[in-house]
Amino acid sequence: MSEAKVDYVEIGFRFLNNDGFKGAHAFTTDNYIKTLNIPDSLIIGVMINASDLYTNIGWKSALEKLFPETKRSTSFKLVRIACHFHEIPYSLLASEWLKKKGFKVGLNLMQIADRKKNEIIKFGKLASNSKLDVIYFADSMGSLKPKDISLIIDLLKKNWKGAIGIHTHDNMGLALANTLAAFSKGATWLDATVTGMGRGPGNTRTEELLIELQELKNSKINNVPLLSLIRSYFNPLKKDKEWGTNPYYYLSGKYGIHPTYIQIMMGDQKYNEEDILGVIDYLKENGGKKFDFGNLDVASQFYHGAPKGTWSPKSLIKDREILILGPGPSVIKHKKYLENFIKKNKPLVLALNIHKNINSSFIDLFIASHPVRLLADAATHSKFPQPLVTPKSMLPKNLLKKLGKKKIFDFGIKINQNSFEFNSKHCVIPNPVVLSYALALCESGKASTILMAGFDGYEAGDTRNEEIEKIIRDFYNSGVKKSLISITPTKHKGLISKSLYGL
């Protein structure tokens, strides 16, 4: 960094809370900083969250805990406060306190894209009455474009005459372009990270920004040590931790959805491509700007209150042999014989979600329950002639609109962990997974036999194996007497295995 003529290096946070293990850079104590080999030419900074000022101990006591030292006695010189708009008052008080301690202080306003013009102007006015060294704005969602950046700086300059900084996220691949747009409008504090290292889509890449600034400022820098560091350390780290933008982060930026949703889903094997796109579609319509774990379990949004349903599965299922088609590749491998079996034995064939591995003419009903998959597959469902079994009465209007004039059998749902209950027009299931719904449908409809195909199982260590096996255990524990019979190869415990070819 020193050879590349970077002015400041922010090396970590100072968190007040110490719940759960966090590494050294979550607290960045002065003792830790002193163990680092830092060139004299670099100014070191740390960041705090303004939310730590809104605790029951009070903002001043919080600061005393976070900063027991003064500028003269510490190894860092810069403190930045990351705040939301409603946290500006305490953040300004904190900046005064820190200035008296001798530190340079910056205030970083997060989620600037959510702020109205008058709020941005107000931010600049409030800051102008302080002794802040720099005010920053952050494109937290990665949703802004260069023209937006120019407008924001113009609004800030109506009252603020000091230094302006920018922090960009690369959801839509515009982090560098936005940073350069800010520079062209007079911003002098430009955030960047090596290889864009950062949560999710990452940030402006230091190495690229330096190349551009070298040309714009007609200056010479030595990039060799930085590029060598990237090759030997950062590239392997990036491969391991997988930061950087992708189509999902691009969509999150485009629609102003918090990137943490994408990060969590990409790290969880139970979410496939359709699921992630479905969640994005849901959050686009239902407010995804603020991260909330509850939004990922969108079933809690859809299936709340008393279960509703108007259709009794007994009308089709009672005393019949049922064949449930799962997504496993064994359906493709044994397709010819499965189709012959269906022709000969005429079971009622239930396909989970969208099923294209056998001819759709052999399918009697499509089954869908998970809101995410319904959102992802609605347009495709509307094209199939077979009825769709789903809790229609409990679905939101936007989803029903997507299903159009689709013929729907309305079988209600209530989610209750670890439980299966079977009623004439609704069921209680432990989760919104479509297999749970299909099994409850069969039992509520009084099926004589439940056969299953395409439930192959996943590789060892895949969390989806345990998820499915728990569903099977919960189903048996509900008092069901009949066995679940897999007629294609399966790794799942709890399924009785029989061969399609011997039936």
* pLDDT < 50 stretches: none
- Rounded to the nearest angstrom, the distance between the terminal CA atoms is 70 Å
| Chain-averaged pLDDT | 91
Q: Can you give the helix content as a percent range? A: 25-40%
Strand line-up of the largest beta sheet = 12-11-10-9-8-16-17-18
Number of contiguous helices? 20
Largest sheet: 8 strands, parallel
Q: What's the alpha carbon Rg, rounded to whole Å?
A: 29 Å
User: CATH superfamily assignment of the largest domain?
Assistant: Aldolase class I
Q: Tally of extended strands? A: 18
| CATH fold annotation of the largest domain | TIM Barrel
Strand content: 15-25%
Class based on secondary structure composition and strand pairing: alpha/beta
User: How many domains would you count in the coordinates?
Assistant: 3
- CATH class identity of the largest domain: Alpha Beta
Give the overall shape, derived from the CA principal axes.
Answer: elongated
CATH architecture of the largest domain: Alpha-Beta Barrel
